[in-house]
Design brief:
Length: 832
């Protein structure tokens, strides 16, 4: 043991001494130390946050036991001309799937209340919105749920009991020990029967409470449908398949079950003709582990698909994180290399005094490790401080990003960076020849080393330029989409969501009447949903008497809808409360697209025509077209406008409240609505949003992406500026003799300045040739997702080029000025 100590003790002392020397070296040049540590720290902070988001995205649903065997049942209802996929399916498939070969278990669930309404509970006199699910018994086993308090099975079995997560219990009751506590929901008293561990935020099946099918809150018809599926309602379904089971065989069996369901197959002749041999409904199985990246799923009034992301976007963010980290590391390597070149005399003296290659390399490694670990500590601190803002920016709960395991991984990454970034400066130091340097014939960098640092700087600038181009294009397109006219002025309109349909609710009718009577309220219109939102969307085939038909999206509105939105008719007239009676089934207003799809060459020719319309009871109703309305933006600019027909029907739950005065913003109406609300809906939470905000939600992901890229671009540009600054400094140092000789031969200051700027400018232009073509391709692919986009040509690329050149010029300016003012005597003395 004594021998071992004698072997390792000197080695340990050497390492500690190297770190002390490295620390003193950093303190001797505080500006350099601040630049390299802060630059690397900021890059690490950005990379840690972005990589944390990437990891969070790839962890969705991975907490489910044997998630590789769990599948979501999806369907596409081809009767709908748009025919999106839904992660919902007819609940009748659950019982059929449970008995199929290869299926280990099948379960289903529904939101406790429809997505458009939500579940409101009263606890200690206060109202709370709860995200709840009504589940079948196999649901808990499928997701691997376990109670930390109480009995989960019993909680889902008893009518007066429910299960709650620890986080929800803390929010609602002020304690996670909520077993036995009660809440009042829709006049029924429910008791906490089980407390569950809070599921990870990375789940596409989020919930706060669980109700069993025997719960007092579950209506008898909903209970029966969950068990039997006899009404053909859609619900969420999960299947656990046995290892080695044939997924195509299970999918085919489910498809046959759908194809043999009479209610689905009874379609009018015009629908059969439009289907052209396609199935009424397509069924598919999708892995639950990949559900987060399934962007084809649409939402309806039953449930929204929840948070989703595109895998290419997440992979791109991961690439941006690695690029930022690489740029920061390259920036440090450049700075360290220039510093070693300036310290060649010191290195030469140490070699002359007996320092070996190992000792010199260890000292540089110690300096690099110190820089990397200090930068990692700063990066972790910055990431911790920025995490709440970053989570809000990306609209994801990222509490696990800075878990102990991730912090340890970040420190390990810092150590690896320290080792990796020490290699090139150590290589330069080891190649120093003391005789040449001390004789004044050294001090210059090899051609290969100079070429390498130029390449690194070019890549830095190219990356920053490309990111800037894409960020500007996405921001410009998002701004364009948000400014695009929806067909009306949304500024004076406030959207209020009611808990009950107006037509069926005396309280809602009284509330609307009271709201109309308030000063400052110009009027109140009723609709099924707000313009620009897709919580409620349905369609019917409108048919002319000669047999021609068109699948048309139906919008149910009150008679004063067009009046409150200030929408005039393009031809004929729109609904008018002075002429039309509420809920009159005869008058119909079309948009021009619907009129053309019905075969009218001129939309105005449709006015007065009779159209046949099948109601929900399949009874045919005759409708008469009274006018043609202009196009409204019911969907985002990613979707082409569709055929739309407006009918009179006041069973909607959405109010459009218009402020009096053309320039009055909708926000002034909120206090009025809030004051009236408790009188008519004491057990419901008020939900209001301006019409402009609802339209903007369609582009929220684009806005977040633009802000993320802008942040990444700013960091990349700053790093590129550092790199350019270092390269220009070394250019002046390296070409000092040449500059002096030029001055001695009569070169003016401007010629010397051009000499410095020319070299850096050429590198910046080369960076543009590398970085801008991929950016242009990325912009083109992004804009391809829109049916209407901003006039984005090459100006975004030119703007990014100009901004990068301006930053590069700023970074070069100081050293160009120093070169212009360089005195020949001082330069020759320093080179001696």
């Amino acid at each position: 043991m004594r021998f071992s100590s004698q072997i390792h003790y000197p080695s340990l002392i050497m390492k500690l001494r190297d770190f002390r020397i490295g620390w003193r070296t950093l303190l001797q040049d505080p500006v350099y130390s601040f630049v390299v540590i802060s630059g690397l720290g900021i890059g690490l902070a950005a990379a840690l946050l972005l990589l944390g988001l990437v990891r969070h995205s790839w962890q969705y649903n991975r907490h489910v036991p044997d998630v590789d065997q769990v599948y979501v049942v999806k369907q596409r209802y081809n009767v709908d001309p748009k025919a999106p996929w839904f992660d919902q399916a007819p609940l009748l498939l659950r019982a059929k799937a449970a008995g199929m070969p290869g299926v280990a278990a099948a379960t289903g669930y529904l939101p406790s209340r429809a997505e458009t309404l939500g579940l409101t509970v009263r606890i200690a006199g206060r109202l709370h919105k709860v995200d709840g699910l009504t589940v079948l018994p196999d649901f808990a086993a499928m997701l691997g749920l376990r109670a930390v308090q109480g009995d989960l099975a019993a909680a889902l079995e008893r009518p007066d009991s429910f299960a709650i997560t620890e986080e929800a219990a803390q929010r609602l009751f002020g304690t996670a020990n909520a077993l036995g506590l009660t809440m009042l929901a829709e006049g029924k008293l429910l008791r906490v029967g089980a407390v569950l561990r809070t599921p990870p935020a990375s789940s596409t099946i989020p919930f706060e409470t669980l109700l069993g099918i025997r719960s007092a809150l579950v209506e008898p018809e909903v209970r029966d449908e969950l068990v039997t599926g006899s009404r053909g309602w859609w619900g969420k379904m999960l299947l656990r398949v046995q290892p080695g089971a044939s997924l195509p065989a299970i999918t085919e069996a489910l498809q046959r079950a759908v194809d043999s369901t009479p209610g689905l197959q009874e379609q009018p002749p015009e629908v059969r003709q439009r289907l052209a041999g396609r199935k009424v409904m397509d069924v598919a199985l999708a892995p639950l582990k990949d559900a987060y990246f399934d962007q084809d799923v649409a939402q309806n009034f039953v449930a929204a698909p929840g948070p989703r992301a595109h895998p290419a976007v997440i992979a791109g963010l991961g690439g941006v994180a690695l690029l930022i980290l690489l740029l920061a590391a390259v920036n440090y390597v450049n700075l360290a290399a220039v510093r070693v070149l300036r310290r060649q005399r010191e290195v030469a003296m140490r070699k002359v005094l007996g320092a070996g290659a190992r000792q010199i390399a260890l000292q540089l490694l110690a300096e690099s490790m110190l820089v990397a670990l200090l930068a990692t500590a700063i990066g972790l601190l910055l990431a911790w401080l920025a995490l709440p803002l970053f989570s809000e920016l990306v609209n994801r709960k990222l509490d696990s990003v800075l878990s102990p395991g991730h912090v340890a991984a970040a420190l390990l990454l810092g150590c690896l960076l320290g080792v990796a970034t020490a290699v090139y400066p150590a290589w330069i130091a080891l190649r120093v020849r003391p005789g040449q340097v001390l004789a004044g014939r050294g001090g210059t960098e090899s051609a290969g080393g100079l070429r390498m640092r130029r390449v690194l700087t070019v890549l830095q600038v190219a990356t920053a330029m490309g990111l800037a181009s894409v960020a500007v294009a996405i921001a410009w397109q998002t701004a364009f989409a948000m400014r695009a006219s929806p067909g009306f002025d949304p500024a004076p309109l406030l959207i209020v969501d009611l808990p009950e349909p107006v037509r069926m609710s005396p309280a809602a009718q009284s509330f609307v009447a009271a709201l109309k009577a308030q000063p400052g309220v110009a009027g109140v219109a009723i609709s099924e949903d707000a313009v620009g939102r897709s919580n409620v969307s349905w369609f019917r085939d409108l048919k002319r008497l000669d047999g021609r038909s068109a699948a048309t999206e139906i919008k149910s509105v009150s008679a004063n809808f067009f009046e409150q939105y200030r929408i005039p008719a393009l031809a004929g007239r729109v609904f008018d409360p002075r002429q039309d009676k509420e809920d009159d089934p005869v008058p119909l207003v079309l948009n021009a697209i619907a009129a053309r799809e019905l075969g009218f060459a001129d939309p105005a020719a449709a006015i007065g025509q009779v159209l046949l319309f099948s109601g929900f009871d399949n009874k045919v109703i005759q409708r008469r077209v009274v006018g043609i309305a202009p196009e409204l933006r019911f969907h985002s600019l990613r979707a082409a406008p569709r055929a739309v027909a407006y009918e009179l029907w006041t069973a909607g739950i959405t109010l459009s409240v218009r402020a009096a005065g053309e320039d009055t913003p909708a926000a002034v109406l909120e206090p009025t609505v809030r004051a009236l609300w408790p009188k008519y809906f004491p057990d419901a939470i008020l939900k209001t949003r301006s019409a402009a905000d609802i339209l903007a939600v369609n582009y929220a992901d684009d806005a977040r992406m633009a802000r993320l890229l802008a942040l990444a671009t700013g960091i990349a540009l700053a790093i590129a500026a550092f790199g350019t600054y270092v390269l220009s400094a070394h250019t002046v140092q390296r070409r000092a003799r040449e500059i002096v000789l030029r001055k001695l031969y009569g070169a003016g200051r401007s010629a010397i300045g051009v000499l410095v700027v020319k070299e850096i400018g050429a590198l910046a232009l080369l960076a543009a040739l590398i970085g801008l073509p991929p950016a242009a391709l990325a912009i083109q692919r992004y804009l391809a997702g829109y049916v209407e986009h901003a006039p984005i040509g090459g100006w975004t690329l030119l703007l990014a080029l100009a901004a990068t050149l301006a930053i590069a010029a700023g970074a070069v300016a100081r050293h160009a000025w120093l070169a212009m003012r360089m005195k020949p005597a001082d330069a020759l003395r320093s080179q001696a």
